[in-house]
Amino acid sequence: MHTGTLQELFPAAKLDEPLRRYTAWKIGGPADALLEPRCAEGVISAVKKAKEHGVPVTILGGGTNVLVRDGGVRGLTIRLAKALTGVEFDGNRVVADAGVLYPVLANTTAARGLAGLEFATGIPGTVGGAVYMNAGAYGSETVEVLDWADVFRDGEVVRMPNEDLELSYRRSILHERPGWTVLRAGYTLEPGDPVELKGRVKEFRAQRMNGSPNRPSCGSTFKRPEGDFPGRVIEAAGLKGTRIGQLEVSPVHANYLVNLGGGTAQDALALIELVKETVREKLGVELEAEVRVLGES
Ligand SMILES: Cc1cc2nc3c(=O)[nH]c(=O)nc-3n(C[C@H](O)[C@H](O)[C@H](O)COP(=O)(O)OP(=O)(O)OC[C@H]3O[C@@H](n4cnc5c(N)ncnc54)[C@H](O)[C@@H]3O)c2cc1C
Asked: Is 215 a catalytic residue?
C-alpha cells in the first residue's frame, strides 16, 4: 500500500520507522506505519480501520521476543508497550493493561502485598506479550495466575477465561489466531507480606543479572527440549562463541544469541539454523525456536 494512503488513514503513525529501535535484539527493518495508541479504544479503531481498508496489522508488545526480518513489516504495526499502562486493584484481583511491563507489574503487586507475580520481574516484555507467550520464569508461568484476558477479535472485545486461551509452555491459542489482540488481563493473587515479596523480587532480579549476557538478544532463543535445557545442549555441541556476521552464541549463556552491534535478521536466522542442525547432528536433539519471526526478508 502507498505510504501516502497509510498516513491519511493513520495520521499519528510514523512512516518507514526502523523496528530495530523497538526490539530487544536491536534488529529489524522498517514498519510501513508504526502506531502507538494511547488507549484501548485507539487500538480498536485502528484495527477496524485497517481491516476496512485491507491493511495488514501486526501487534508488537515490548519487542522482547520477536525477530523482525530485514525487509520490515508491511501495513500497520501497532506497538502497545508503554502506551496502555493502567493497573487497577480490587482486593487481591488485579487488572493490567496490555502495555504494562511485566517487571513493573511484579514490583507493583509485590509492594501491595499481593503474591504470585514475583517471577515476572525477570521477563522484560508486556502483559499482552506474556499472555501470548504464557511467559514464565523461576518455575512459575502466567497460566498459574491469569484469570482472563480481554481480546479484541473479529470486531468485538471478548473476555476470554484462562482455559479458553489454551496456555501451555510458551504458547497460547493466539499463535494460531493472527489479528487477535490482547487489550488487558485479569489476575487473582494471594495475600502476602510486602517486605518478603519485594525481597523475593529483588533476589530473582539479582539471579538474572548474574547469569545473563549483557548484549542485545531475545532472551532464550530456543524452547526447552524434552528432559533437557537448550543452553546445556548448545554448549555440549561446542557452539559457544560461534558467530555468523554480528550474531554470536553467547559465551555467557549458550541459549542467548547476542547481537554484537549492527546484526541482521538474516544472520540471526542463519545462526538459529546452524545451532539447530549442529545440535541435531551431534546430539540427536531437536530444538524449536521460542522467538517469533515477523515481517519480510
Ligand atoms: C533479556 C531477556 C530475557 C527474557 N527472559 C524471559 C523469561 O525468563 N521467560 C519468558 O517467558 N520469556 C523471557 N523473555 C522473552 C520475552 O520477554 C517474553 O516472551 C515476553 O512475554 C514477550 O513480551 P513482549 O511484550 O515483548 O512481546 P513481543 O516480543 O512484542 O511479541 C511477542 C509475540 O506476542 C505478540 N503480542 C505481543 N503483544 C500482544 C498483544 N497485546 N496482543 C496479541 N499479541 C501480542 C506479538 O505479535 C508477537 O508474536 C526474555 C527476553 C529477553 C530479551
From this structure: no
Q: Cα torsion at 194, 129, 250, 282 (round to 10°)?
A: 120
The pLDDT tens digits for 39-88 are 999 999 999 999 999 999 999 999 999 999 999 999 999 999 978 999 99
- What pTM value is reported for the model? 0.97
pLDDT at 1: 62
> Is the minimum distance from the CB of 103 to ligand 1 under 6 angstroms?
no
Whole-angstrom Cα distance, residue 126 to residue 50?
23
CB-based contact 87:105 (threshold 8 Å): yes
Cβ 116 under 6 angstroms from ligand 1: no
| Below-50 pLDDT ranges, the chain | none
Domains in the chain with CATH codes: 3-79 (3.30.43.10), 87-211 (3.30.465.10), 230-294 (3.90.78.10)
Catalytic status, residue 156: no
- Residue 232: active-site member: no
Tell me how far apart the alpha carbons of residues 155 and 27 are, in angstroms, rounded to a whole number: 32
Number of H-type helices and E-type strands within the chain? 7, 18
Ligand 1 center–CA 268 separation, angstroms:
17
From 91, 120, 92, 93, select the one nearest 105 (Cα to Cα): 120
- Among the options 36, 220, 224, 248, which is catalytic? 220
CB 206 within 8 A of CB 130: no
pLDDT of residue 218: 97
**pLDDT, position 232:** 97
Look at residue 199 in the predicted model and tell me its pLDDT: 97
Give Cβ neighbours of residue 34 (< 8 Å, ≥ 6 apart).
13, 14, 15, 17, 19, 22, 77, 79
